[in-house]
Amino acid sequence: MMRIALLFITAIIFSCTQAVKNNDRNAFQSSDINKNYNAVEIGLDVLFQERINIINKKKIGLITNNSGVDKYGKPNYLKFIDQKNVDLKIIFSPEHGLFGEAAAGQKLDYSQIENMPKIVSLYGKNKKPDLKDLEKIDIIIYDLQDVGARFYTYITTLGYIMEAAARANIKVIILDRPNPLNGNKAEGPVLNIQNQSFVGYYPIPIRYGLTIGELAKMIIGEKWIKESPDLLVVPMKNWSRKMWYDETGLNWTKPSPNIPDINTALIYPGLCLLEATNINEGRGTEKPFKRFGAPWINNRALATKLNEKSLPGVEFKAVTYIPTDIDGVAINPKYKNQICNGVEIIVKDRNRYQSVKTGIAIISQIASDYPNLFEISEKRMKKLWGINDLSIFKNINNNAIDRSSIKDFLALSKKYYIYN
C-alpha cells in the first residue's frame, strides 16, 4: 500500500512536468531521454549503478526537490525507498518545496502527507535542520539541481546542512549534477562577507562556474562554514566544463518554478538584481526574467537605447504584458494586474552573452531615464550584488566590473575542480 500511495502522490505532483510522465514505474523508458550514448551520468545514477555499497544498511536523510530525478525522470526518493537494505528516514526540502510547488517566499507544511518518510521544509522560520531530526541518521545525501548563481538559495541550504551534519558527526554525500551554465565562466563581484545573507552565503561571484560538488569541496576547503563534516562527492561521468546543460543528453527539470528552461537560467544571474528595484522582473508571466517592465516605462525608447549599447550576444524587443498571480509560481508580483510596458531579452549568442553586465546596463539605463520614478532598495541590493558600492547602477557610462577579485576566485577555485 505504501508503494501505491507514493506513486499516486508522485503522479499528481509531477503530472505537469517533463520529469515524470505517469505513476507506473515501468513507464520510465529510455525514450524519455535524449539518445546519446555519451550522455552525462549524474551522481545519482552513478551511485545506484556502481557505488550502492556506500549506503548499504544505512539510515538516510535526503535533501532534494522535484529536480532530484535520475536520467529517466524517476524521483530519487522513490529509488531510495525501493532499494533493499537502505532506510530513507527523512526528506529535507529547500525553498520552493519538495515538489517544486511553492512560489518564492511561500511557506510549506508537509504534516498531512501520509505514507511517506518524514518531510521537513528548510525554508521559512526554520532554515536549518533540527538536530533531533538527525539523531537516527547515518548519512545525509544532497541531490538537487543548482543553477550556478550565488543568490540561488539551495547552496546556502547546503552550507546549513553541512554545518548541522558536522555537529551531529554525520557524513555528507553529494550526488553531483551539471552546472547548467557550464564551468568556464564567472561573472559579477565576489561577495564581501559583511553582506552575507540567505541569498549570498559565500565569498563567490554571482555566477561562479562550479558544480555543486566542487562548490561543497571549496566551502569546506576554504573554511567558509563554522564546522565541516566528512564529505564525499559522487562525481558525474562524461561531464566537462565546456558543457551547457542541453549538451549533456539529460532532460531539463526546472529546479524552481521561475527557472523553466536553460535560457532563463542563463539570464537569471543578471536579471535577479531587479528584485531589489521597483521594476517587475517578469514574475507573474510565462517568461520570468526574460522580460522586465513597469507601467511608467517607454518600452520602445528603452529597447532602442539598450540595443544601441551593442551588448554582447543579446538583443532587446519592446513588449507589453500584465503580471498576475500564478499558483505555485508567482504570488503578488510587482504591478499585479497592471499593464507593464516592458522589454524582452533575446539571447542571440549564449557564449558571448554576459548576464550580469546586461543586468547592470538595464538598471543603470532605467535609473538614468526615470530618476523620479525608479527606486532601488540599497539594503536588498547589497545582499544581491554582494558589495556595498552600488555606484555602478547609477553611472550609465560605466558598466565595467572590477575583475581582479574574479580572477583571484578563479585561480583559487581551480584546486577544487573535479572535471576538466
Task: Give your account of this protein's structure.
It is a single chain. With 420 residues, the chain is of the alpha/beta class. It has two domains: 2-256, Uncharacterised protein PF07075, DUF1343 (Rossmann fold); 262-388, Aspartate Aminotransferase, domain 1, CATH 3.90.1150.140. It is 25% helix and 12% strand. The chain contains ten helices and nine strands. It has helices at residues 2-14, 43-50, 76-82, 154-168, 212-221, 262-271, 299-308, 355-369, 378-385, 404-413, and strands at residues 58-63, 86-93, 118-121, 139-142, 171-175, 231-234, 291-294, 314-321, 340-347. The strands form two sheets. A six-stranded parallel sheet has the order 3-2-1-4-5-6, sandwiched between helices. β1, α3 and β2 (86-93) form a beta-alpha-beta unit. α6 crosses α8. The N and C termini lie far apart (46 Å). Mean pLDDT is 90; it is low at 1-34.
Largest beta-sheet characterization: 6 strands, parallel
Detail the poorly predicted runs.
Answer: 1-34
- CATH C-level class of the largest domain: Alpha Beta
Question: Which bin fits the share of residues in helices?
Answer: 25-40%
- Hey, roughly how much beta strand do the residues contain? 5-15%
The overall pLDDT average reads 90
The strands making up the biggest β-sheet line up spatially as 3-2-1-4-5-6
- How widely separated are the two ends? 46 Å
Question: What order do the helices and strands follow?
Answer: HHEHEEEHEHEHEHEEHHH
List the helices and strands and how they pair.
Blueprint: H1 2-14, H2 43-50, E1 58-63, H3 76-82, E2 86-93, E3 118-121, E4 139-142, H4 154-168, E5 171-175, H5 212-221, E6 231-234, H6 262-271, E7 291-294, H7 299-308, E8 314-321, E9 340-347, H8 355-369, H9 378-385, H10 404-413
Parallel strand pairs: 1-2, 1-4, 2-3, 4-5, 5-6
Antiparallel strand pairs: 7-9, 8-9
Helix pairs in contact: 6-8
